Amino acid sequence: CALPISNTTVVVPGLPGAPTGVAVELDGSGRTAIVTYTPPASSPSAADIIGYRATCTSTNGGTARTGVGTGGIIVVTTLTGPNSIYNCSVAAITAAADGPASTAVSVTTF
After folding, report:
1. DSSP letter, residue 102
2. What are the Cα distances from residue 58, in Å, to 14, 43, 50, 76?
3. CA distances from 82 to 14, 22, 33, 37, 76 (A)
4. What are the angstrom distances between the C-alpha of 59 and each of 44, 48, 83, 88, 103?
5. Torsion angle, CA of 74/53/25/72, rounded to 10 degrees?
6. How confident is the model at residue 11 (pLDDT cuts 50, 70, 90)?
7. At a CB cut-off of 8 Å and minimum separation 6, what does 69 contact?
8. By three-state DSSP, how is residue 24 classified?
9. How do residues 13-30 score in pLDDT, each as one tens digit?
10. Strand order of the sheet with strand 73-76?
11. pLDDT the model gives residue 62
12. How far apart (Å, rounded) are the C-alpha atoms in residues 88 and 76?
């Protein structure tokens, strides 16, 4: 017995663009990154974005560190150091998937 096949198309909503204006500073410990960003201009709708993820990747192959936030500032903790270089970027989070990452900004721990 063969089942009928339906030709349906699943539409995945468009993803937002990458955040811009990313900047990174270290707090007084030198091991916590304060990442700031401007939300992407090209968003399907503000309701589609449920948050933002900052990812700081060590240039020496160490473990990447992440933080999540919604208000233009994300805190990323437990960076190693001293003198470890991290490349930090930000991406919008939606229910469908993460949007593209911003251009990475480097920071060196102390």
Report:
1. P
2. 30, 29, 26, 13
3. 41, 23, 13, 25, 16
4. 34, 32, 11, 11, 15
5. -50
6. very low
7. 51, 52, 54, 75
8. strand
9. 578 889 999 999 999 999
10. 20-26, 33-38, 73-76
11. 86
12. 9
Category of 90 on φ-ψ map: left (φ > 0), alpha (ψ -120 to 50) or beta: beta
Residue 9: predicted pLDDT: 39
Place of tokens 């198309």: 9
Model pLDDT for residues 43-67, shown as the tens digit of each residue: 655 568 999 999 999 999 889 999 9
Structure tokens at 22: 């990313």
Q: Which amino acid is at 12?
A: V
Question: What does the DSSP 8-state code read for residue 46?
Answer: G
pTM for the structure as a whole: 0.84
